[in-house]
Design a protein that fits this description.
- By secondary structure, the chain is α+β, with helices and mostly antiparallel strands.
- It contains five helices and seven strands; from the N terminus they run βααββααβαβββ.
- A hairpin with a 2-residue loop joins β2 and β3.
- The longest helix is centred in the middle third of the chain and has 14 residues.
- The two termini are 22 Å apart.
- The model has no long low-confidence stretch (mean pLDDT 92).
Length: 121
């Protein structure tokens, strides 16, 4: 199965869903919340394992990164489909230069410095 694209509040409202429709879909469990404003359809969510869900979320976060930021740590390992073992996948990890680290319920931003050879697509 191809990995699903996330649904965002913006994409859902652009398709005609209201905030009430989104809340109703969450209560009815036809949508699953990945992070604030980021969702998957229940059928797509259930078809993925924990690493697959993290990979979908990390790709979404990666699409929003600015220059000087990159997916990192366990999230990079998951994107590269490396084996991981008993590592929490509740937060997407990013590294960034020129800014302080930060931890939220769904994101762990690490302050770092790197050279051009340290990044891969």
């Amino acid at each position: 199965m191809d990995e699903p694209e996330v649904l965002t509040r913006t994409s859902l409202t652009a398709a005609g869903a209201s905030d009430n429709d989104i809340r109703h879909a969450l209560r009815a469990a036809t949508l699953v919340l990945l992070a604030r404003g980021v969702y998957l359809r229940r059928t797509e969510y259930d078809a993925l394992d924990e690493a697959g869900r993290h990979r979908v979320h990390a790709r979404h976060v990666g699409s929003l990164l600015e220059p000087g930021e990159a997916i990192s740590h366990v999230s990079a390992a998951v994107l590269h489909r490396l084996d991981i073992w008993k590592v929490p996948l509740t937060r997407v990890h990013v590294s960034r230069t020129g800014r302080h680290g930060r931890i939220t319920p769904h994101l762990h931003a690490h302050h770092t410095t790197w050279g051009d050879d340290d990044l891969v697509d």
